[in-house]
Protein: NAD-dependent epimerase/dehydratase family protein
Amino acid sequence: MQDSIHSICGIHGYRGHALPVHMPPATSPPATPHRQKWSDGVMERPKYLVTGGAGFIGSHLVDALLARGEPVVVLDDLSTGRMENLAGARGQDNFKFVHGSVLDASLVDELVRDCDSVMHLAAAVGVKLIVEQPLNSFTINTKGTETVIGSAHRYGRRVILASTSEIYGKNSSGPLSETSDRILGSPSIPRWSYSTAKAVDEILAELYRREYGLRSTIVRFFNTVGPRQSPAYGMVIPRFARQAVRGEPLTVYGTGEQSRCFLHVADVVEALLSLIDLPDAVGETFNIGSDEEISILDLAERIIACAESTSSVNRLSYSEAYGPGFEDMERRVPDTTKLRAFTGWQPHRNLDDVLADAVADARSEVSRQVLGLVAEGQAKGDTDSSTGQTVLAGPCPV
Ligand SMILES: NC(=O)c1ccc[n+]([C@@H]2O[C@H](COP(=O)([O-])OP(=O)(O)OC[C@H]3O[C@@H](n4cnc5c(N)ncnc54)[C@H](O)[C@@H]3O)[C@@H](O)[C@H]2O)c1
Structure:
């Protein structure tokens, strides 16, 4: 698998390079990209390194950067990402894919050295993964980020760090601004370990900035949806859309009165592009999300209508869905005043656009599955190996 990816993408010779013994602290990056020889030819030095670029948000960002003519290198271990997400990017001269982990310090160091800016999106994401592999997830989400930040500091590279609205924990007041309080449950609950790992990432970036001048920007994504989002990791809209398309009942956890806001991934990418080269954004944290609030029960009804489905809605208590002790927040609404003030950004797609895309994506995946082109688990959602129950979180946004 790895060999075939490397040969498809023409990446060789990244592994086995020792870390420099000593590197000076941050220096200014060169103003213009230079040309560098690659094993498969000559290409302009990659301007952007996108970790997690084979994932949902990362792959849309890669497409947008390539469309702007920017050279891009992706580092991804394909744990939740998929090569087909990069189908549009793969044939392009300005694009390179490296199959590897952000935990591989020498690999990360070499890739960061050879780029101008890092968009760090790689993370263990989704309720299922975090609950089933809590230690591995925590390690990727802390050590992986520390590795990326350490190399960015070493070579004076700009970093945009993907964080999350989970940072705010159970704070159900709203709209939440970047300085709103974090309200968390016990650290023994895996959900809060994801929130805490991302908080550690944010703290690291901030301390490197204060002490060494790291040029970092933190973006906190609220619920993001759109094409290529897998239903297998606890995302409510892809799951509801597939259930509606199949005519199956949509399962709402809890009362269904809990509310969320969903932003189309294309608007998220526009926000990222507006921040990417903005000098004033260095040292700042931004919420990125929609302020169109909807309850999960209303969401289920809207998706059924959008899919013209005959599905019904079932309710399941949190304890039935997740076991005892599951904690969730009633509301999660972002205040994006700061992002709008810094960049002039505003979303161009509303919830109807989001749902139309989700239903179209679900239709295409379900029909490919009928033709045997997509695995059952991928189209329908994963199953807990111990209980045989479908482990898909309704309202959980991680
Ligand atoms: N989608 C959302 O609603 C949302 C909300 C809040 C925060 N985020 C954050 O946005 C980022 C992207 O999330 P996404 O929704 O696109 O999820 P995703 O799972 O589609 O993308 C994550 C990518 O990281 C890769 N990855 C995981 N571990 C890795 C490792 N050790 N080394 C290299 N690559 C690795 C995965 O293969 C995947 O391609 C993450 O940092 C996530 O925490 C997403």
In short: The radius of gyration is 21 Å. Residues 67 and 226 are 19 Å apart (CA to CA). The chain has a mean pLDDT of 84.
